[in-house]
Each structure stands twice: as structure tokens, then as C-alpha cells.
Amino acid sequence: MTAEARLGVRLLRPGEPAYPDLLSETPDPPALLYVRGSVPLEGEALAVVGSRRPTHYGRRMARELAGACARAGIPVVSGLARGIDSEAHRAALAAGGRTWAVLGSGLDNIYPPENKGLAEEIVAAGGALLSELPLSGPPLAMNFPRRNRILSGLAWGTVVVEGDLKSGSLITARAAAEQGREVFAVPGPADSPMSEGPHELLRQGARMARRLEDILEELPMLRGQRPPQGVAARLPSAACMYGPATIEQEKILKLLGSQSMTLEEMLQETGWDIPQLVRTLTVMEESGVLKPLPGQSYARA
């Protein structure tokens, strides 16, 4: 019996019917995905991530958000790590919901080892374990940043609960933004080092998440209202994340709304000189926020 058969693991490739739709629409989907358990093709999921050394406040907020998601029938995606990830998985299970864990190691080499029991609970409750690494793959440091793009790619949005400015959860937020998914951050105490990461994301344009309702307002697809153009219907704040989001860029986005404008029209509306406007438009076009149209016109990408 092969190791895959012993563990009940499926191997999925992009283009195959069982490959998750949302993940397949990301710029860099895994060429081979090891899956143990059940992941729906069109899962309307939310990712919840954060510090491995959270405060009591962070643990409570992770439990409240993940539990509320599960009670609303929304699967919770996280990384099976210590801290916030574990709290999110456990809260989803306690609420009778499903949760998916994306590993930075192979599915036959669960990391951290103390979460082996949690991994079994996730599968038994109808959730899934996922990895792009071979079954016995070790939990090397280089694996986790790559893992994070899968985590965010399985969900419509990513919520960062706690983390300092070097937290891996900010890498997940960056991956979500680059995939055109929404990024949320839970505000925390101003004097807590664990609030630095979420507060920086909020400064850069992430949405505030105090309760599930804050998230559902921004992501109606989690209520089953899928956007008409699938994930191609991007939100501006996600498109701008980790780019040079400036006051000038925000002004251009507000001017454009859902329409296109010519260079001359934007000059009249902004009152800027040509070099300033062209410089701003060039940066936004290169970062994928704007697309050029015939006749020296621009529209949101």
C-alpha cells in the first residue's frame, strides 16, 4: 500500500475537476496539491492567521471570528501553526463547522507535532489538510512563505489577528493582496507589539475586522452572493495593498469610480500638472491597479 493510500491522500493538479476553483485562479497555483479530507470546489472560505505568540486578547478575537464564521457556514482556512492558527481551527471545530489547514510540511510529517491530534480532528469533522510538499517533506523555514499563498488563495479574504512587523501573517496578507483578495486586520491595543502588524495593514488600506459583520459587508460572496465575474471582480483596497499607496493614487481611484477618464479630464479634475499626473498613472499602471485604454484613457484594472 502506498503512503498516499494509507493516509487517504489525493494528488490534485490545476485543470483537474477536483482542484479548488479559487486556488486555480491565483497567479501561482501549486502544480501538485496533496489533499487529505474534503475541500469543496467552490468553497466560500475565510482565512484567519496571526502570531504564534498571541496575547490573551488575540486568542479571544481569533476564537470569536473563527467561531462566528463556522456558525455562519463559512469554512475557516489557517496554517495549523501554534497560536492564532490553532485557535482559529479549534474554534471552527467547536462551533460545528469545517476548517482547512495548509501545511508548510508534508501531510505525513505534521508540524508542529503537538497539533497531530488537531489535524486528525479537522479531517474527521469534514475539513481538510493540504500541502504542495511531498508527504514526508520537512518543515523548513523556506516552505512557509510559499505555503502562505495557498492559504490565502483558498479564501475570498484573509484576516490578520495579531503579529509584529516581522510576522509571517503579513506575508499571507501580501499574498492575498497580490491575488486580488480582500485583506482585513483586527485592531488591537496601541501599546502592544502584537498590534503593530495589523495596525500597519490598516494604515496601508486593509479593512477593519472587529466582528464577522464587518467582513460580510465587504465580502457578500461569503453569504453566497458570488460576484458576477468571479474573482476577476477585484476590490480597490486589495489591488493597492503593498504598492505605493499614496494620496494621489487614492484620488485617482475615487475619480475613476466604475468609469474611464481621459488624461485631459483627469488634469482638469485634479488640477495637477502633466508630469505629476503621468508619474502617478505610470506607477499605478505598473502595479496593476489601472489599465490603459484607447484615446489616452484609463480605468480601474
Describe the model.
The chain has 301 residues and is an alpha/beta fold. It is built from 13 helices and twelve strands. The protein has two domains: 230 residues, Rossmann fold (3-Layer(aba) Sandwich), CATH 3.40.50; 58 residues, Arc Repressor Mutant, subunit A, CATH 1.10.10.10. The strands form two sheets. Strands 1-2-6-5-4-3-7-8-9 form a nine-stranded mixed beta sheet, sandwiched between helices. Strands 10-12-11 form a three-stranded antiparallel beta sheet. It is globular. About 7% of the residues have low confidence.
How helix-rich are the residues, as a percent range?
Answer: 25-40%
Instruction: Give unreliable regions as ranges.
Output: 225-244
Arithmetic mean pLDDT: 87
Query: What is the CATH architecture term of the largest domain?
Result: 3-Layer(aba) Sandwich
Rounded to the nearest angstrom, the radius of gyration is 20 Å
Task: Bin the strand percentage.
Answer: 5-15%
CATH topology of the largest domain: Rossmann fold
Highest CATH level, the class of the largest domain:
Alpha Beta
How many strand segments?
12
Instruction: Output the number of helix runs.
Output: 13
Give the neighbour order of strands across the main sheet: 1-2-6-5-4-3-7-8-9
**SS-based structural class?**
alpha/beta
Number of separate structural domains: 2
Sketch the major β-sheet: 9 strands, mixed
Order of helices and strands: HEHEEHEHEHEHEHEHEHHHEHHEE
Distance between the termini: 50 Å
Shape: globular
